[in-house]
Amino acid sequence: MGSAKAQEERTSHRTSKIDGATRAGTEARMLQEWHYYFQNTLRWRNLRKITVAQVQGTCTRRPHADVACDLIVGAENVLFADVVAPGSACAASSTSATLEFGARKTKELMLTGDAIDVHEAHRLGMVSKVFPTDELEEQTLAFAGESPSCPP
């Protein structure tokens, strides 16, 4: 898909020859998603510094920046949604969601395409705090400053 120029750029890019890209069919896509999404998410999760995600509005599950953080703080208007078609979830998306929700809830969200609001995400343990939208930045900075290992 795409223009001839876009196809040429895709096939000449250095990533077209590594991390499983030379495999046939779906295997190539799955291996590349493993390297570029899931492994990248793990690198963020394993940072030696505390990371805090401040989210508002609709937050898609890719590229997983929110789930990679140690703490997630959300505005009251947050809706977490997946960007893949229901029933066709990629391995990276379902794997990172499983880290947050467990297998059963992840399957439900991935197979139905349902989204969850910030209050359900808080109830499920994905979101640490929920703040009014107009106070989000101020409250997030105050929350992050409360940690003794995270000076203001």
Explain the overall architecture.
This protein has seven helices and six strands, in the order ααββαββααβαβα. The longest helix is centred in the N-terminal third of the chain and has 21 residues, at 25-45. The termini are far apart. The chain has a three-stranded parallel β-sheet with strand order 1-3-6. It has a three-stranded mixed β-sheet with strand order 2-4-5. Helix 2 packs parallel to helix 4 (91-101) and helix 4 (91-101) packs across helix 5. With 152 residues, it is α/β, with parallel strands linked by helices. The protein has helices spanning 4-12, 25-45, 65-68, 91-101, 103-112, 118-123, 136-145, and strands at residues 52-55, 58-60, 71-75, 79-81, 116-117, 129-131. It is elongated, with a radius of gyration of 18 Å. The chain has one domain: Alpha-Beta Complex (2-enoyl-CoA Hydratase, Chain A, domain 1), CATH 3.90.226.10.
